[in-house]
Amino acid sequence: MPLKKVYKVLIIDDDKFLLDVYSVKFRELGHTVVASFGAEEALLKIKAGDNFDAILLDIVMPKMDGFEFMSELRKQNLAKNSALIVLTNQGEQKDVDRAKEFDIDGYLVKASSIPSEVLTEVLKIIEKKNSQ
Known about the structure:
5-stranded parallel β-sheet, Response regulator, Bact_response_regulator, phosphoprotein, Rossmann fold, 5 helices, Sig_transdc_resp-reg_receiver, globular
């Protein structure tokens, strides 16, 4: 029986409840999760050399929003090998298009996916990114 792959995932949100929900889902399958309450904290972790297979981030957050976070990642050439996945309630096409400008690997709308569907989709995106 082949070994199941486990991944290290960074989840960035300003909603502690959602951070917990998604963290539990990933951990139940043996994945390592680092939850970050806000983008500034996440950026510090990445700059400190923490590597992630995937980074899930919300768009609407206080201080630094998801777009600013992605801009900083790209400007500073950080997390190049991480799958960058937007996980937000911002489902408007203008938001999707703006996020795509940052060369994201996926865009998931929280309201239209239950946590287990998000987990499945994130794992597919990581697998696809790793096979490129």
